[in-house]
């Protein structure tokens, strides 16, 4: 029976140190950690490795639910995988979350729904803020990283899409998109 920790931060500029320390203090003998967005389980290799490594009787521990999943569906899918392997789940900051008890399963469901709700609200606020900024003429979106005029000039000089892409160090699809 091994207590296994999983830590995650969203960006390279963030530190995993605090989560790792909390997981070690909670008795985790093995840690999986990564710097990857939690909006999806895609590309989360450390999570995949942790789920494959866990065996019957082990317990997966995270510091907060949002470190494991940002959507209710992803959370339930992960918990289902753990349940099928007869692996327990604990969350340190939401102490009542312990899937080895009925009450813990109930609390997990409620907190999962709240986490998904918070993500939705945050996205709505962000969208509203962008719309307001656009209306005031402040927000113009991300500046173009490729000069469309340069691409068109190279095309007019007789270069093909592949040559333009190579010369500008961009993908051919980008060249076609800009020429369309």
Could you walk me through the main structural features you see in this protein, from its secondary elements to its overall organization?
With about 180 residues, the chain is α/β, with parallel strands linked by helices. It is about 50% helix and about 10% strand. It is built from eight helices and four strands, in the order E-H-E-H-E-H-H-E-H-H-H-H. The chain has a four-stranded parallel sheet, sandwiched between helices. The longest helix has about 35 residues, at about 100-135. It is elongated. The N and C termini lie far apart (about 60 Å).
User: Number of helical runs?
Assistant: 8
Instruction: Round the Cα radius of gyration to an integer and report it.
Output: 23 Å
- Determine the oligomeric state from the structure: single chain
Our estimate of the beta-strand percent is: 5-15%
- Characterize the largest beta sheet: strand count, sense, and whether it forms a barrel: 4 strands, parallel
Strand order across the largest sheet: 2-1-3-4
Number of strands: 4
Structural classification:
alpha/beta
The end-to-end distance, rounded to whole angstroms, is 59 Å
Task: Give the overall silhouette.
Answer: elongated
What is the element string, with H for helices and E for strands?
EHEHEHHEHHHH
Low-confidence stretches: none
Helix content: 40-55%
Mean pLDDT: 87
């Amino acid at each position: 029976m091994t207590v296994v920790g999983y830590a995650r931060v969203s960006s390279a500029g963030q530190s995993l140190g605090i989560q790792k320390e909390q997981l070690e203090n909670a008795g985790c003998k093995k840690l999986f950690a990564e710097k990857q967005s939690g909006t999806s389980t895609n590309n989360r290799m450390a999570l995949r490795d942790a789920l494959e490594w866990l065996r019957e009787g082990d317990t997966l521990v995270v510091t907060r639910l949002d470190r494991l999943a940002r959507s209710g569906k992803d959370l339930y899918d992960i918990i289902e995988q753990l349940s099928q392997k007869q692996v327990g789940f604990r969350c340190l900051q939401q102490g009542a979350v312990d899937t080895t008890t009925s009450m813990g399963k109930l609390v997990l469901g409620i907190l999962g729904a709240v986490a998904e709700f918070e993500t939705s609200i945050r996205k709505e606020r962000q969208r509203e803020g962008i719309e307001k900024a656009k209306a005031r003429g402040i927000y113009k979106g991300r500046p173009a990283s490729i000069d469309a005029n340069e691409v068109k000039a190279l095309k007019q000089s007789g270069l093909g899409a592949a040559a333009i892409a190579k010369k500008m160090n961009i993908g051919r699809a980008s060249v076609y998109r800009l020429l369309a």
